[in-house]
């Protein structure tokens, strides 16, 4: 059986810093995927996921164990992703490398075999960051609206509304796609 | 049709099983007679099912082992984390109270401990209290001032401390042994 996170954390805090590897092994895939779903860019997702672990390590002493460690880690990672999206949105579009954008579009197209999946991926990309975050935490991390509200620092009602808006937007995306094709 | 708009706004909640009994019946009665809304409900199901299975590429670093090594390398330059005040006081109680969502009694006990230590600490010379701990401690108190908030904290953690991390590290850096 896997050692509980709380025990691993206690070991790290008692000076056995190498035990942090256990937490990295346990959550690296989830955190990387969460960051990828937020950024749709593997390089950025990798950097953000690594940064999330570094920040978690630095502030492990302030983790109170009132939530699951994974939820705490999602919050760190999600804050980083949202800040990243904010800073890239501020970028002057003329500064964005055209080739890079094409490459990203190409790799996305190869990755998404079906046209409907591609339409959905575009739909997700177009969601406001908070809605995208809510959708990711709900669908992929399986969190409750309450947990999502805690992570995104909003009310449960807002988390719910963001989720409903996001799903409705994707539903419309499929609907529009059907009309076009 | 106005009816359809109202129903469509409820379709996601219906899919999630989050409608009350009355609303659920209304939506289902409508769906039994409205092919347009049935189509929308189908698209919601499809969208969610597809979103769930959208692929994610492997990380560029090449393997998860390489990812882990990269994290380890970045952490090697960091000071080892130490338990905050909360951890030192409350961690021993985890087995007793905190395995389940915090009951009010446990939260009150924790608050009592924090306040008690706060009284003792405020009587000490400020020089005895490391600055980083003061920050963490103040935050504990700020949260402790509202029991309702404390009760709902089973998922909330002190990201505020994270946000002040740079400050904390500067304050604290001189006293921490560095990893070689
Ligand atoms: Zn209808």
Rg of chain B is: 26 Å
Distance between the termini of chain A: 51 Å
Query: How many angstroms does the end-to-end distance of chain B come to?
Result: 71 Å
Q: What share of the residues of chain A does DSSP label as strand, in percent?
A: under 5%
Low-confidence runs of chain B? 97-102, 120-156, 158-180
The dominant shape of chain A is elongated
Strands of chain B, count: 0
Secondary-structure-derived class of chain A: mainly alpha
Mean model confidence by pLDDT of chain B: 67
Number of helices of chain B: 11
Report the helical percentage of chain B: 55-70%
Number of domains of chain A: 2
The largest sheet of chain A, given as strand count, sense and whether it forms a barrel, is: none
Number of helices of chain A: 9
Oligomer status: heterodimer
The molecules bound to the chains, other than polymers, are: zinc ion
- In CATH, the homologous superfamily of the largest domain in chain A goes by the name RNA polymerase sigma factor, region 2, helix turn helix motif
State the helical fraction of chain A.
over 70%
Chain pair forming the biggest interface: A-B, 68 and 58 residues
Average pLDDT across residues of chain A?
A: 89
